User: Fold this.
Amino acid sequence: MNRRTLILDGAQAASDVRDQLGLDLIAPVDPYAIAEDLGIRVRFLPVSMEGFYQKGSPPRIMLSALRPLARKAFTCAHEVGHHWFGHGSTIDELKSDDREDSDIPEEILANAFAAFLLMPTIAMRRAFNSRGWKPATANPMQILTIASEFGVGYETLFTHLSVTLSDMPHGVRNELSKWTPQRIRKRLLGHDDADGLVILDDKQQATSVDLDEGYALAVPTGAGVSGAALIERQSIEGFDIYDAVARGRATITTAAWQTEARVAPAKFVGAANYRFLEDPDE
Amino acid sequence: MSTEAEQRQLIAQRLREARQLAGLSQGQVAKMMGMHRPTISEIEAGNRRVSAGEIARFAEIYDVSTGYLLGDAPEKLAMDDPKLQLAARELAKLSPDALDGLLRALAAVRTDGDDKVKD
Assistant:
């Protein structure tokens, strides 16, 4: 099978999974919840790799605790892909960047599955259209905003738009790749204290957003925030900035939406379903 | 044969490792077990006996086998363990440190049917 066919198969399977679990093709999804719904146990280990899928009873996914938040979510979706396709146990070794694309058919399938599970074509279209933005003219702040909504990495999003969906000219991709999430963060916040920045704007539709302790979260100015996991830090044009300071959950409410922010310890080692559990010892 | 004291120490050590591998603090586990926090700390120091029922409950919370908690199972899976279901070429992808970490985690986690074999 050629690469294109495999990518289409991966995309179809991603749509089938959403369908089976009663999820539409528009809203952002939580790959950890999908794994759990499929009976897969997910854990984070302090081990240098991307991920590990263990076929068995129960099936398991082990992810490296050492990778960035969005990377772990993508790898989780990738391992769910191996499970869905009935692949055998696999180790996914550490990759330095997104596009070291494998030539192994199973890996192409699992990668396409993960990309389309997290970033379905219709969802991408809605995300841009509802904001009056276009992939063909997107700027770094816009990409980071939509990447935040879907829980994927900055580079993962524009690579998907340009390479897989062919919705973005090369020139735009090149411009976007000159920016890193760290540089955008520094430009927006005026400092380099946060380990990551997640932006929730008025148009976002995620019902939950994951953060690590040390991350900053931008919410629309005046949004209500309740919960000890987040504390307010500063305001910038259009946004209030909160710091994720403790393991646990917080509820964010605006006139347009309500979202649960879930904070895990940085480099959390443990079972995925315990990562947001408030800790009385803290 | 190990003495009772040695065995209690081994169980205590496994309980601590399994808790850390599950990502829980002593306080969180105490709450789930309906115990006081110092009780967990005493158990993990090997100063308090643990009942069979408690071991089963810990195993469930930590998602590990009771055999692992009781010290009947090795602390690290052998490369040729059938539980692993991994070809040698897969294992070769990992550095020795990473492989060690993975094999330790896999020795602890429970597989359906594990505990029936041990009974």
Observations:
- Helices of chain B lie at 4-22, 26-33, 37-44, 52-62, 66-69, 88-91, 96-108, 114-118.
- The CA atoms of residues 20 and 53 of chain B lie 21 Å apart.
